[in-house]
Amino acid sequence: MAEEFTDQPMGVAEEFTDQPKGVAEKQGEFAFTDEQAQLRTAVRKFCAENFDEQTVRTLMESEPRFDPKVWARLGTELGVLGLAVPEADGGAGGTLVDQAVAVEELGAALACGPVFGTVFLTIPALVAASAGPVRDELLGALAEGTRTAAFAVPDRAGAFDAAAVNVAATVDGTLTGTVERIPDATAADVLLVAVTGPDGVALYAVDATGPGVQRTALTTLDLTRPQATIEFTGATGQLVAGTDESERVITHAFQVASALLAAEQVGAAQHLLDLSVDYAKSRLQFGRQIGSFQAVKHRLADCLVDLEHARSAAYHAVWALTDGSDDPALAASIAQATASAAFAKIAADTIQVHGGIGFTWEHQAHLYFKRATTDAALLGSAEAHRSRIAELVLDDAPAERVPRVATGTR
After folding, report:
1. Quick one: CA torsion of 198, 204, 206, 212, rounded to 10 degrees?
2. Cα–Cα distance between 156 and 272 in angstroms, integer?
3. Is the peptide bond before 9 cis (omega within 30 degrees of 0)?
4. Concatenated DSSP letters of 117-184
5. What percent of the chain has pLDDT over 90?
6. Which of 114, 237, 246, 344 satisfies CB 3.0 to 4.6 Å to 206 for a cystine?
7. Which is higher by pLDDT, 399 or 77?
8. DSSP readout, 333-373?
């Protein structure tokens, strides 16, 4: 049944039951509230004022690669760093949907800052962990933007891999080992580290500037998202999640990160599509707008379809994690497989639409292309997530829940 939509992103529809036309199911998926629309507007305005293209270019070549004062304003003035953190823990008391709306706008602007390490991974891990002095103090500081963090936990395509943990606790309780290619670790104040002990894997918070911690900055394709290899040699850590809950906490963090990264990719892809459409309307060849040529129109139409698929998958994953409406592991992998592929394709097509200028260092298209390439590998490639989807839907599906395959006969 077709519905009329109001001020919502294109392609994001509401789910309805057998109600009169235009009456949305209460708290149904994809129905954004007025408050979320206002949040989107506020974050977009903040990004326009603080993350314009020249500012991003300056920050990505600075150390640290973000402005701590602007980062603190994101936490205190806008409250967007801890939108999904309960008020009792120092957050805004919102939902993961609120967080995704803000992240989408940050992605559109290529906002420089430890969004991936702090907002996508560490904060969700702390929210899922049991309350305690270390957890509570750190969570409040991260939500306010007064401290930053990185998540030094290995993964296999966005899923926790306990066998890959090679940081161990020694007899005297200190940590030894190496964790490679950790986003946002170069300037993080705190490192959340998975540590193998005699009873299993636990999660520790480690002062990134403390003794026994050595960070080696890596040369990355995307200069707006720095990475580092971390070596622990007798470092001291504080327990955040014990062996009884660490796997649950880490798994939740990776699933949230996959969904939020997909929302960020959607925001960046939307910016590129808008950029390409505007250029196609203004660039003239043979006395005509290039947007009037069939090859360009078809390319942009395909980009729109890919973007809308990615947007729907990303927000479905966010809602699945919010209210348990679907298997979060499955929804997160679908979101990553769809959004990573869409962002990469739209970034490449943006360069093609812009022609020669799109290939130059002076044009912003290459900044987004590098972000798309990097993001597609951070929590597993699209191919890796498609493989996991096949495992979850086919290989691991219980007999009483065999997936229905459409035959076209009914």
Report:
1. 10
2. 29
3. no
4. IIIIIIHHHHHHSPP-HHHHHHHHHHHHTSS-EEEE--BSSSSB-GGG---EE-TTS-EEEEEEEEET
5. 79
6. 237
7. 77
8. HHHHHHHHHHHHHHHHHHHHHHGGGGGSTTSTHHHHHHHHH
Name residues whose C-beta falls within 8 Å of residue 198's C-beta, 6 or more positions apart in sequence. none
For 74, the 3-state DSSP assignment is helix
Compute the chain's Rg from CA coordinates: 22
Structure-token pair, residue 85: 């953190």
| Integer Cα distance of 130 and 22 in angstroms | 42
317-329 pLDDT, tens per residue?
999 999 877 899 9
Angle at 128 between CA 85 and CA 65, to 5 degrees: 60
Name 228's Cβ contacts closer than 8 Å, sequence gap at least 6.
150, 181, 182, 185, 186, 215, 216, 217, 218
**Could you identify the residue written with the tokens 């964790």?**
179
Q: What is the pLDDT of residues 341-373, one digit of tens each?
A: 999 999 999 999 999 898 898 999 999 999 999
d(CA 162, CA 159): 10
Residue at token pair 């120092």:
90
Task: Please report where in the chains the tokens 């942009």 appear, as a residue.
Answer: 300
pLDDT classification of 264: cutoffs 50, 70, 90: very high
The total number of residues shown for the chain amounts to 410
Q: Rounded to whole angstroms, what are the CA distances from 106 to 45, 48, 80, 110, 332?
A: 11, 10, 10, 6, 20
Distance CA 113, CA 59 (A): 9
The CA angle 205-126-208, to the nearest 5 degrees, is 25
Q: Which two tokens stand for residue 117?
A: 């390490």
> Rounded to two decimals, what is the model's pTM?
0.89
